[in-house]
Amino acid sequence: MKIMITGAGGQLGQDCLQVFGAAHQVRALGHRELDITRQARVAETVENIRPDLIINCAAHTGVDACEAEEALARELNVSGPRFLAESAARRGSLLVHISTDYVFDGQKPISEGYAETDEPGPLSVYGKTKLAGEKAVGEVTENHIILRTAWLYGIKGHNFLKTMLRLACADPARELKVVNDQFGSPTWSYRLAQQIKKLVDKDARGIYHATAEGVCTWYELAGFFLENMNVAHRLVPCTSEEFPTAAVRPRNSILENRRLKEADINIMTPWQDDVAQYAAQFSGQLLQEVAR
Ligand SMILES: NC(=O)c1ccc[n+]([C@@H]2O[C@H](COP(=O)([O-])OP(=O)(O)OC[C@H]3O[C@@H](n4cnc5c(N)ncnc54)[C@H](OP(=O)(O)O)[C@@H]3O)[C@@H](O)[C@H]2O)c1
To answer: d(Cα 254, Cα 62) in Å, to the nearest integer?
Structure first.
């Protein structure tokens, strides 16, 4: 199979390259190779590569920055996916597009997760544009898989775990306030790439939720990760009000992998197993990176 990955320099893009590259012919296009907001370039690139499958990992992922950069967020999270969908439809390629837990308002009780059938209600510009991106893809082509995931971390790029590690390593005695009233499922981009492969192999279509199994808060995640990294720290739990951010985040960010389970293709594992494996596998690399 011929596969084109956009946003290939990011966390998920790099892991998709690793997972799909083992068995397929992959063209991995970073931001510099293909800007997905340029309609003509997108069309030309898809015509040249003639992919069977396009995996769009490009997005404006700066949740807080999106509040001040709404036009850019729309270009990246709505227009770009639409251009990819149009080109995919012309060629008959399957489009895998990635979306987010932030399409929901998080008002459900913490004992319940969001299923694919639940009504979205995004709170932030990021969430609104990602939802509009899903709709744009759906309007253009039925030949799509839209995968909503959450709290991603990988070895490439920036993420919450690396931020916590950087702060703890810089000064282990410093009190670090971490939000303890938002609940979600931290998801390893490598595991997600494997789940995407499973969906593609099984000829799935439509919207799926795919996050790690189990639930925690940002505070619990930070503590678990730093302990696995054997890094001293002084974490202090706080509320969302005590840690104000430009974008409002859902209190309940829990996604239920309902459709994956119904189809018996859920390969997502408990978040603790993946965070522990990530720490064990990349500990040296991560410590070097945050020391720079
Ligand atoms: N990160 C999370 O916690 C999270 C949670 C839920 C869902 N998601 C979704 O999962 C997907 C992958 O996220 P990720 O964490 O892997 O993101 P990431 O690491 O931020 O990667 C996104 C990539 O998109 C590239 N990009 C930016 N503008 C572009 C453009 N105009 N054309 C082409 N590429 C462009 C970026 O390149 P430059 O850096 O060079 O600009 C970057 O390499 C996204 O759709 C995201 O919305 C992420």
So the answer is: 20
